[in-house]
Amino acid sequence: MITPLPPEQYRHRFDATLVDCTSTRDLKPLEEIVGQKRALAALTLGLNIGEKGFNIYVSGIYGTGRKTAVKKFLAELAKTRPQANDWIYVNNFENPYEPNAIRLPPGMGKEFRDDMAAFIEEAKRFIPKVFESEDYVDRRNAAIQGVEEEKGKLIEHVNEVAAQKGFVIQAGPQGLLSLPLKETGEPYQPEEFAALPPEVQAAFQKAKEELMGELRTTFRQLRELDQKGGETVETLNRDVALTAIGHRVAALKDKYEGIDEIHPYIDAVQKDIVENLIQFMPEAAQQQLPPQFANPFFRELALRKYEVNVIVDNTENGGAPVVFEQNPSYQNLFGKIEKEVQYGVVATDFTMIRPGSIHKANGGFLVMLVEDLFRNQFSWDGLKTALKTDEVVVEEPGERMGFISTKGIKPEPIPLGVKVVLIGTPEIYQILMNGDPDFSEFFKVRADFDTVMDRTEENVRNYASFICGLCEENDLRHLDPSGVARVIEYGSRLADDQNKLTTRFSRVADIIREASYYAGVDGEEYTSDRHIMKAVEEKIYRSNLIQEKVQEYITKGIFLIDTEGETVGQVNGLSVMGLGDIAFGRPSRVTASIGTGRGGIIDIEREAAMGGPTHTKGVLILSGYMNAAYAQDKPLSLSARLVFEQSYGGVDGDSASSTELYSILSALSGLPINQAIAVTGSVNQKGEVQAIGGVNEKLEGYYEVCKAKGLTGRQGAMIPASNVQNLMLKDEIIEAGKEGKFTIYPVATIDEGIEVLTGVPAGKRGPDGTFEEGTVNFLVDKRLREMAETMKEFKGGA
Question: C-alpha 422: how far from its chain's center?
Fold first, then answer.
């Protein structure tokens, strides 16, 4: 017979005396990342290698400290990297619709912006003063005087020519008029001129035509003189303006010597100022401006083209930038171009370009949760495009997709040099690897965060240091040695392994926070083991309403579960119900009915479309076992039906396959099964019992049912021997085990299990192919042989 498991193996205790401190206050907070050696190696490679495509996908389930670990790692790494450059957008004076991007050393973007703003303010003050000065007026008058004298000589000449030809030049409503003169020197009145003989009129008309030719020549010369005068004044204005701002321009060039694109930009600004001096002229000159420039607001709007838009400022960064984007929408990630209403028209310019996270992370690291990235339309495609082209473009997502065709600005792309870190789950990683060919090209490094780590002395010390850091950071009560021991045991329970500790520190931290609250309620200085236990129990209590309802229905007999007596073809199987924040074990009655036939083993759950594929596979494996064990010398003339009684929500998983097999063997042998012992475990075709998941929840769930119906001392459960290492049961079951009220049987084979359930030896096949008489296998084989004979006789009779 199988030896029951000693209660000492129900849980891997941690000796509180091994905690070398009075409380966690005496320890140092944990600084390094523990239990993730593989992930840290991948992070180290991915973040330090410079080749294209070596971005990182951090893979792990929630609560394993993925984000915290990445933050700590990047915070230290970024300090060793050089500061990233500043980036500014400035006006493109040749094509305002395509603003220029300029790279500046870190911290110089704001400085250049302020210098340019000061330069324009000085220009606004100095240029009007220069043009109001007496020196300028004298020089302007002197430049114009020569032109005016030449114009006077031309007008005097044309008047002389007109007089010689008998005409006088007068200004009229329609312009200059040439009027014929009498001999007295007075002009003819129209009626007088009409009364003249035709030959006289013809002579005057001929002379007038000659005069008009002279006038046209003179007017052309006058226009040339006007143009010359304008050019002279313009040249003077340019020279005066250059003198006014030249020293400041030279100072700017000297200060920003050696920076690409700055000198050409300053030259372009200077040229535009000189060509648009009217914007800087004194108030008296504003009458010459277009109406919109007469308003001071619009004058300032016109001067906006000289501003500098700093989109990336790395003044404060002590190293490479690290940006965690919590909401990676397209605009948050790649920036946007804002718009405003001017004169009732929506307008924009380079000053309304706003940066995205990828701009701020340029030259450093950009971190995002992959789930957030895929919740935002266009963001993933935009990120791939940026990584593929090594540049980032600010544009509207609608324009990118061709939905918007209105005219706007098109900023110059900025060269991109960023390391992207995506944090997600293993499932999403597999989806991307299989569904997106580009993913493997851009994210060549996978940093896998494990959910467990070995329960070694070093990791136990790290656990204690983690607790210390958590208490310090959140102002919680520190834990005494007993509390630390309980947390370590809780870590093993979450890991479902006696020799492991969970790395899902967020769940451990939640228990410590809640336990600190209970310690405060009790007025204790330190959190102890009883506070940890209370936190665990209260956490379960808040979520186990359904579990209590199920136990209540079992106690009342609504759900039929026997915890006493013996029954043929009936076994209590153990399953787990998961409700999101809690999982608990629920016993279910499994029954088998046997008949002669060729149907084999029929799964009623599958026939009713309530069984999952894994459960179906487990049932089919039973057929394989039955054929291998009993159908070597006869046909298997069996029609067996299996069912989970009172199961209405579907069944999946193979953890009940051994349970189903025991019920079939009981039904065939006629041997009753002890209903006080529940069963879990899967089986293979060779009859070996295999490990299953949720063993702690299953055992605790069945124990609660037994306790509610009354512990008799015969109750217990049978588990795969390979699951013993996963046991981390609560103290109450351990005490019940010590008192002989609840027993756990570890079994490795079906033969071992059937002996525990029936109390009858399983029996081994002898050299002659028969089993020992009176054993379970003997009775099963005998019944199957009888069924085969019955089937043969039935066919013969037919």
Answer: 7
